[in-house]
Amino acid sequence: MFDLPAQRAHLSEKYDLSPSAELAASMEDIYARMSRVVSPMDWAIYAPYVKVINDLKAERNAVVLGHNYMTPEIYHGISDFGGDSLQLAIKATEVEADVIVQCGVHFMAETSKILSPDKTVLMPDMEAGCSLAESITADGVAEMRRRYPGAPVVSYVNTTAEVKAASDICCTSSNAAQIVAALDSDTIIMTPDQYLAQNVARDVPQKNIVWWEGSCIVHEQYSASDLRDFREWNPGTRLIAHPECPPDVVAEADFSGSTSGIIKYVTDEKPEKALLITECSMASNIADELPEVDFVGPCNMCPYMKKITLEKVLYALDTMTGQVEVEADVADKARLSVQRMIDLSRKLGI
Ligand code: SF4
Q1: 90: helix, coil or strand?
Q2: pLDDT averaged over the chain?
Q3: Rounded to an integer, what distance in angstroms lies between the CA atom of residue 50 and that of residue 214?
């Protein structure tokens, strides 16, 4: 468990982290990336943390990988690279840094460690989990194999290293349909997201797809009737859903795609009004780049992602605590599943 008061005491002894309008003004270039969604008053609070973290990164030869669901002060203030979980893990292998600070949830840090075993991977809050990753263990994968003998197991990247190690190949929400379609088997086991599996089953009708009953607590909350009501009350709004949403929600939307797919769609289409049916920070993080788009409507927050704060990132980098380790034999098997996905995606040109 985190001892927040002790962390705060440690940080305030070493650094001046009091709000500063002067410092905030001197970092106007960073603020410009989030000025539509972060008030000047909040920026004056964040700026001292952003300055100290960015200085420490240089000292430690560290990079920060920020998931699309991070808050704007993390995504734009301290992240060297932003993206979805797989983009970040691949980026972890490419950077020269000694230290990776994973601003996301625990399975993402594990994936970075699996792909970059020689780098130190820091997780600012070890309790930042994921309802999907926690829904299945390696025993669950074994149970599915018993139920469907001979069927290959395709596991979403939102899984623990142990589950990846027990699977045949991984997938992301952007390549799941193509990966499944390319496998040489009529029956395919997909874990752990039942809704992603059902959405893939609709797109790949030639396969018999069976699934584990996991779900994302953020995306399962949306309903098709919510979307119909919203469309009626806000005519002209483009509804854009993540494929972790239930299939009837996806069917009701104008477009469905992974977080990177959503960003590309909104950037290319520039709809006048858009409702992103996904985690709240997605819209916040692209709002300043797309001033012509009015991001409207309700969103759902991921409580796991929101465990990552500037304060926790600073503490992890300062003390080098929160190091993520994956046992070598598990990492070797898990790496095979991830690498098979990367290789197949390249072969398929996706
Ligand atoms: S948004 Fe859903 S899938 Fe992503 S980390 Fe949160 S619970 Fe997991």
Answers
A1: helix
A2: 96
A3: 36
**Structure tokens given for 87:** 């983009």
Q: Using alpha carbons, select from 129, 124, 136, 109 the residue that is nearest to residue 190.
A: 136
Q: Is residue 1 over pLDDT 70?
A: no
Q: CA geometry: angle at 43 spanning 40 and 45, to 5°? A: 120
The residue contributing the CA closest to ligand 1 atom 6 is 302
Q: Single out the residue of 292, 289, 261 nearest to residue 277, CA to CA.
A: 261
Rounded Cα distance between 21 and 23, Å, is 6
Q: 130 CB under 6 A from ligand 1? A: yes
Q: What is the pLDDT at residue 4? A: 87
Q: What is the pLDDT of residues 98-155, one digit of tens each?
A: 999 999 999 999 999 999 999 999 999 999 999 999 999 999 999 999 999 999 999 9
Whole-number pLDDT of residue 90: 87
> What is the mean pLDDT of the segment spanning 301-330?
97
Helix (H) or strand (E) holding 39, with range, is none
Name the CA dihedral angle for 133, 203, 146, 111, rounded to a multiple of 10 degrees: -30
Which of 135, 216, 277, when mutated, tests ligand 1's pocket best, judged by the most ligand atoms within 8 Å of its CB? 216
Mean pLDDT over 256-285 rounds to 95
Secondary structure of 92-107 in the HEC alphabet?
Answer: HHHCCCCEEEEECCHH
This prediction has a pTM of 0.95
The number of C-alpha atoms within 13 Å of 89 and in the hemisphere containing its C-beta is 23
CA dihedral of 281, 100, 106, 80, whole degrees rounded to 10 = 10
302 lines ligand 1 (CB under 6 A): yes
- Going from the Cα of 9 to the center of ligand 1, the distance in angstroms, rounded, reads 31
**Predicted pLDDT of residue 89:** 83
Please report which helix (H) or strand (E) contains residue 164, including its range: helix 161-166
Closest to 25 in 3D by CA, of 2, 51, 1, 59: 51
